[in-house]
Amino acid sequence: MTRSAQHTTDLDRLEFFIDGEWAKPHGTDTHRVIEAATEEEFATAALGSVADIDAAVLAARRALDEGPWGRTTPAERAEIMHRFADALLKRADVTSEVVTRENGMPIGTSRALNGHAPAGVFRTYAEMIKTVALEVIQPSPFGATIVRREPVGVVGAIVPWNYPQMIASWKVAPALAAGCTVVLKPSPETALDLYVFGEAAREAGLPPGVLNIVTAGREAGASLVTHPGVDKIAFTGSTATGRWIGAECGRLVRRATLELGGKSAAIVLDDVDLDVFLGGIGPASFMNNSQTCAAQSRILAPRSRYAEVVDALATFTRSQTIGNPLDPSVTIGPMASEQQQRKVLGYIDIARDSDARLISGGGRPAGQDRGWFVEPTVFADVKNTDRLAREEVFGPVIAVIPFDDDDDAVRIANDSDYGLAGSVWTADESRGLDIARRVRTGTIGVNYYSLDINAPFGGMKDSGIGRELGAEGLNAYFEYKTLLASAEQLPK
Ligand code: NAD
Description:
alpha/beta, Aldehyde Dehydrogenase, Chain A, domain 2, 23 strands
């Protein structure tokens, strides 16, 4: 949605953050930001053009090649990153409320994941970089070899709208810790909130050009991917976009990390304690109204307890409170956009036309005439070949699929193009871990699913390439260089 006439509110973001300054756009495109729960316009944001991306990349390039950032010590970078985290925390309440209005995320989740978690990620990488040996000297047949880690260079960080703050921090924090410079491109759907990173950069004293922020759509985003001044693309988004970015980066021999979609399975074993399952399935399957890449949208249930599991899911979904996500008692908010609501309702129609059995939900909730809401919906008797079991819905629609025994459950879980996440629910943790080891996904939990920001996160198969978070997430921002020298360099 673009227009040239603008209305003004306190939340408007009509400038980009380039070279340490708030910069006027080269073009006139703007985006009307619509509140997901009310369908009312609540702010306007500038949309960047190819020229704005170009200015941001040039600033990042200059800061990398000529600026002081690459010559700072890890301890100096860490100090700035802690100040950056302080600045984010000071604004946490406002930021989380803005994201909730933008994308419909329940406010409690938003406070945790948009308000507080990004600061934690900055602090984690600030501390980690102080412990990393940037040069390791080892003996060689010719004397000594120094294996050195250098920043990968200028990073183009492209993020989606579902967890904008958190996913941006997974890229920006390790990149800054490693000594890289960054052009961050937020999604138009969440065009307002990420400029808080620009305010934090100024408050923390980050040198100009080290972090640049331009919200833009597809065309300008694509120009960031192929810009000759960029060394690495760090992307989170759909598998379709990720394939295109991966192909372009392959053609250009450009580094890329791709965090893509999922169709994860929760495997309920025959010894499950249904109370434990019901206590954990909310975060595992319905977090952020299921607009979550790791959402467990296939529930694999044993035939021996199939009816019980289906009933439990129906009870769970019917007990949810649907409404304005700014209300802390609400557990299911709206979809982020009309397009997203249409897509989710489309999958419900597809499932209704199949042999699957609708158990609960199945459309827009009664009494919500404004806002892009979809009822939490459960379909039973879904076949793993059905579209509902194969394609990412990105909304609160669950497919329950029966299985015969543990081997059959593992086979069905792995029979997916995706490999992002999953869970196993059982009274016997070691049995659960055995199953979890056989499922080909980047993360999998036993009796709960959550994120551990100190461990790698990412996908196998069509869910992506590379890992973010943990030490692996920092290594993705280094190039390795081998220096050949004499034995004099060896420690005495
Ligand atoms: P999307 O692929 O449409 O967009 C993601 C970002 O890429 C946005 O900023 C968008 O503007 C930009 N973009 C789109 N086309 C581009 C192009 N040609 N070149 C450069 N940039 C381009 O995805 P979305 O709808 O915003 O996000 C939802 C998807 O993200 C889901 O598939 C979800 O599973 C995935 N996701 C994955 C993870 C993960 O860690 N694996 C996390 C969150 C979301």
